Amino acid sequence: MPTALVTGSAGFIGYHVCARLLNEGWRVIGLDARTDYYDVTLKDARHARLAPLGDFVPELGRVEDPGRMAALFERERPDVVIHLAAQAGVRYSIENPRSYLESNIIGTFEILEAARAHPPRHLLLASTSSAYGANTSMPYNETDRADYQMSFYAATKKSTESMAHSYAHLYGLPTTMFRFFTVYGPWGRPDMALFKFTKAILQGTPIEVYNYGDMSRDFTYIDDLVEGIRLLMDAVPERPEDGIVPEGDSLSPVAPYRVVNVGNSEPVQLTAFIEAIEQATGLSAQRNLMPMQPGDVPATWADAALLRSLTGYTPATPVHEGVARFVEWYRSYYPRNSCDPQMK
Ligand code: NAD
């Protein structure tokens, strides 16, 4: 069976991607630094569940460690590389920009260098809806200019897109850059709204509702995201020979490089999202209405036409269903709601 290298394998999305590939019989090398951005025991629990699923090789290490990725690529010669490891989070980047520089910019550089030496069949990297910046009209389309990033997190992710494009062009590396939209579901991140809101509602403490609730997000359920990733793994971009890109495609005119939104394409108001949590928990939220947070945007919305045309697939889990599955997981994982994730 082929080998996949998945970075960020103890993270929320990485864990689910590894589980999917192991269930299909892939050999999976899972690299993660187990950073303490949030509860490390949750990361360990995710990794621990992967080993019994198949041929899983966990690797502890940082992507930006000089030579670390080069040695790993040389040893394993992965067929496919899915680079998800990153310092995520918009708000944390305001006070801690250096960790984004190191993990996201230098880390991606080390991945690209290793891929240059030992090219995988397909290199896939995670970017974000935040890369669209301040001036993009709705819904976000991959061919939009996407300037004026609002946070340093977004700036590092947008930079990695440019870096990956140049490597794809210069060294012929088939590369897909995902733009993910607010992913949620079981085993989700303690720093994200669904986790924080569920925890607070179950504990009877107030939730912080930014922009006085006037926000919307294109919430994407984790199983739908993994399906999109899995199908895109087989949609390997090729360099267009004549430089002409088919209409609606974000394929580069000079490189085997493509940007693809992986999003639900159905934005949901924050107020409706909170109501879905109330319904799933059977409890009322105490809302603490707050102003807009720096670095944030009021709305996101994925144009999912390119994902559909490349894979025939569109994410479709309704938000109330996805939220109910998260709440069910949360209650079973934290039975007495005793968790106190160490968040920064
Ligand atoms: P996560 O924080 O749960 O997972 C990231 C994992 O990477 C963590 O386990 C962490 O320990 C590891 N990591 C961080 N820095 C590292 C480093 N320098 N070296 C090695 N490992 C390191 O986040 P996630 O939600 O699973 O996100 C995965 C990817 O998707 C990230 O690139 C993120 O920016 C992107 N993304 C996520 C969302 C979302 O809604 N979850 C939205 C848009 C983009």
TrEMBL record:
<protein>
    <submittedName>
        <fullName>UDP-glucose 4-epimerase</fullName>
        <ecNumber>5.1.3.2</ecNumber>
    </submittedName>
</protein>
<dbReference type="GO" id="GO:0003978">
    <property type="term" value="F:UDP-glucose 4-epimerase activity"/>
</dbReference>
<keyword id="KW-0520">NAD</keyword>
<keyword id="KW-0413">Isomerase</keyword>
<dbReference type="Pfam" id="PF01370">
    <property type="entry name" value="Epimerase"/>
</dbReference>
<dbReference type="InterPro" id="IPR001509">
    <property type="entry name" value="Epimerase_deHydtase"/>
</dbReference>
<feature type="domain" description="NAD-dependent epimerase/dehydratase">
    <location>
        <begin position="4"/>
        <end position="237"/>
    </location>
</feature>
<dbReference type="InterPro" id="IPR036291">
    <property type="entry name" value="NAD(P)-bd_dom_sf"/>
</dbReference>
